[in-house]
Design goal:
alpha+beta, three-stranded antiparallel β-sheet, 20 helices
Length: 569
């Protein structure tokens, strides 16, 4: 296959146009009936394909005003626009695409990006294949390509879409207060059933003091990640040292609930949550914990009488005409190939972990997060939502003014409350939301976005970013953990995909903001950025790393891209 990017763009565009035509299906529950992005000849400059089946890209910047079949709700609200009218330079998009496709050529997995500005979808891009590696770590050659409809496991971005959105709506409607106590929703057993665990890094207070603390715990404490819960009690793993949270096959985890991944597991996990003691007094420290959002999800379900999936769809997705947002996609008409795969060997970290019931096959179409899958049946407040980038970006627009067309979801006051700095000491935190603050989230939001920028990142390689000063929403989805573990001994939680530029996510806004809203030539700035990026990738290499180490491959990817740019390719 030719490696000339412009030729590949033309061929890809013509092939896609011939194969799918210009129809858009909406409102379908199944993936086969789901919306396909409209493409036009105007998009030829925005289409990239990769090489040798490693990277296939589909991107769209076409206007859809004339499409008769497009869902009325979304067609009236988010139209297709152009990069030019959005103040974004085509050259910036080109280099973003080039970085991703070259990374994929050198070993990265896949990606999907959508950009909405001023209520117009100005860019969609899809790169790579839905499953990049075999379980023996070799590259796959028979995997379906990622499209703009492919669903990604959002991981912790689910906290915002599944729980924050629900709470913001309930607060807007006056149905709940963030000062409500958790025990009002989970019952007295949330306090009474607490057991004593002398956490190694905890406060070492007696059980009665800890029970008193749990009685004082509020929704606001958990939104601020100041509830005092441990980061992850690993309710799914029966052999965890509860004091250190370290894997130990000789120790029984007293908070183990179940691995049956069903309603029985959820009930057992709720009991385990009630048993879980706090490490600190609520409000004393900031400690990011998945338990916080597991509990908040239960609060939403207790208040609304609906599970999180049903509430999300009834309250947001159906009114907005969104068909590519769901928990448990395989139970809602989607197939495995409609979903980007995650870990290659189940949850074993390539054989490092084992326990009864652990998944060992490649995870695809099921939530990767262990507690969300084994303990909550795939529907949890802290993880579990799957989405494509475009529907996620559309949901992100609600945080700009609370509306979607004529629909009001959040009041401006509630948006301000949830996105305001937690305190002067924590300018990078809102209520659940991650904030740019004093340039404290630049690795995700870049160095050029406004200080009011907020969003959230997910462990699987996902990001939702909202810049209210620019009226801009960016959704970046990858499945970086769909790759071998780099070194099981040193760090079983670091995958080859983590080493690539694409996995950093923040490179997208960093490039996108170059020359934004300015009629200037950005090529020199982009060339300078690429040179600095290549240099930083070189510095990440250590002499002890083998020749096929992903850090070396990432640097080779940047050198290849830099060479092409210097040659005018």
């Amino acid at each position: 296959m030719t490696k000339n990017p412009r030729f590949n763009r033309i061929i890809a565009c013509l092939c896609v146009i011939c194969s799918i035509g210009f129809t858009v299906g909406c409102g379908a529950e199944s993936a086969s009936d789901a919306a396909i992005s409209t493409l036009s000849i105007e998009m030829i400059s925005d289409i990239e394909t990769g090489t040798d089946d490693l990277a296939v890209s589909e991107s769209s910047t076409a206007d859809i005003n004339s499409e008769e079949e497009h869902d009325e709700a979304s067609a009236d609200v988010i139209l297709y626009g152009t990069l030019e009218e959005a103040g974004i330079h085509q050259e910036c998009i080109d280099i973003i695409e080039d970085i991703i496709t070259t990374d994929i050529e050198y070993g990265f997995t896949s990606a999907q990006i959508s950009i909405i500005r001023d209520d117009k979808l100005v860019y969609e891009g899809a790169f790579g294949n839905v499953n990049s590696y075999n379980q023996d770590d070799s590259r796959k050659t028979d995997s379906a390509p990622v499209t703009t409809d492919t669903l990604y496991d959002l991981a912790s971005v689910s906290k915002m879409i599944g729980v924050n959105y629900a709470l913001q709506k309930l607060v807007t409607d006056g149905e709940i207060s963030i000062n409500d106590k958790i025990s009002e929703y989970l019952g007295q057993e949330f306090i009474d059933d607490t057991i004593f665990i002398d956490y190694a890094d905890g406060s070492h207070e007696p059980l009665e003091t800890i029970k008193k603390w749990k009685g004082e715990l509020t929704i606001a404490h958990l939104l601020r990640h100041q509830g005092g819960f441990p980061p992850s009690p690993k309710y799914h793993n029966p052999t965890i040292n509860p004091e250190t949270f370290e894997y130990d096959p000789e120790i029984e985890n007293p908070l183990f609930s179940s691995v049956s991944a069903d309603e029985n597991a959820k009930e057992a996990t709720i009991k385990a949550i009630c048993m879980t003691p706090l490490m600190f007094e609520p409000g004393a420290k900031v400690l990011y914990s998945d338990v916080d959002y597991m509990i908040l999800g239960l609060v939403v379900e207790a208040k609304t009488g609906k599970n999180l999936d049903t509430y999300l769809k009834d309250t947001f997705c159906k009114p907005m005409g969104l068909t590519h947002v769901t928990y448990t996609p395989l139970e809602h008409g989607f197939t495995k190939d409609d979903c980007a795969a995650t870990e290659l060997n189940g949850n074993t970290r390539d054989g490092y972990l084992t326990f009864d019931g652990i998944r060992t096959d490649t995870v695809q179409g099921e939530v990767h997060d262990e507690m969300a899958y084994y303990c909550m049946g795939g529907v949890s407040g802290h993880a579990g939502i799957f989405s494509n980038a475009t529907d996620l970006a559309k949901l992100g627009t609600l945080m700009l003014d609370g509306t979607y067309g004529d629909l009001q979801f959040f009041s401006p006051e509630v948006i301000a409350e949830f996105t305001a700095p937690k305190s002067e000491d924590y300018m990078n935190w809102g209520l659940g939301w991650w904030r740019q603050g004093d340039m404290q989230r630049t690795s995700y939001f870049g160095t050029r976005s406004s200080t009011r920028t907020f969003g959230h990142q997910g462990w699987t390689g996902t990001l939702l970013m909202i810049d209210p000063d620019k009226n801009l929403v960016i959704a970046i989805l990858t499945n970086k953990i769909n790759s071998p573990v780099t070194d099981i001994v040193k760090n079983p939680n670091k995958f080859n995909g983590n080493w690539y530029t694409t996995a950093t996510l923040g490179f997208v806004p960093e490039i996108l903001y170059i020359g934004m809203d300015e009629s200037i030539d950005v090529n020199a700035d982009l060339q300078s950025y690429l040179e600095e990026l290549t240099d930083s990738c070189d510095k990440a290499i250590k002499s002890s790393m083998p020749e096929d180490h992903p850090a070396r491959l990432n640097a080779e990817s940047k050198h290849a891209l830099l060479d092409r740019s210097q040659q005018g390719g």
